[in-house]
Design a protein that fits this description.
Blueprint lengths: L12 H25 L5 H38 L4 H28 L8 H18 L7 H33 L3
């Protein structure tokens, strides 16, 4: 007699193949577009493309290393059953590190795809805010000096204000483009 549980086949490469193929196609498109645009690019634009490509590879390697380290730490945590707040702080800090590297890579891909001529200030400020949030996550509040907390809070407020100002300027620029009156 059949069991009431449904049989779920094991995941195969065919299950994630469409996603992988989509990423491969996007990478090919970036290289194809760059190759086609290369003769029309200035020396500096070529330099910028090469630097962004190298940085993308380096940051991807950092993201992979951070992810592997995170997975090893989580596996050890599960294996040994360590449940301490300090361990969770480290794990969450590592997760945010992976997210920061992914955001950096996403920004550089925008430059490589020539959606942006340079790295956008708004994105850099956002990444800096993520780095400060990460610092707050990993801080041991019992050992940190109050001046450090005040400094980080001030930096977060200043970056938040800069982000808001840049976003407002972008919004005004978009409004001007939509209605040229």
């Amino acid at each position: 007699m059949d069991s009431p549980r449904r049989h779920r086949p094991e995941a195969t490469t065919a299950d994630w193949s469409p996603s992988l193929e989509r990423h491969k196609a996007a990478a090919r498109d970036v290289f194809t577009e760059t190759r086609e645009a290369w003769p029309g690019l200035s020396y500096y634009e070529r330099f910028e493309q090469v630097v962004c490509f190298i940085l993308t590879v380096v940051i991807a390697a950092v993201a992979i290393a951070a992810l592997v380290t995170l997975l090893i730490r989580v596996a050890a945590l599960l294996l040994y059953g360590i449940v301490e707040p300090a361990v969770f702080q480290v794990i969450f800090g590592m997760i945010v590190t992976v997210l920061i590297t992914l955001e950096f890579n996403h920004t550089l891909l925008g430059v490589l795809e020539r959606r942006h001529s340079i790295v956008q200030v708004r994105t850099i400020v956002l990444i800096a805010l993520m780095a400060i949030a990460r610092k707050f996550l990993i801080l041991d509040l019992k050992e940190v000096e109050h001046t450090t907390l005040l400094g980080l809070a001030g930096a977060a407020l200043a970056l938040g204000a800069v982000y808001w100002l840049v976003r407002e300027q972008d919004r005004r620029d978009e409004d001007k483009e939509v209605s040229p009156h």
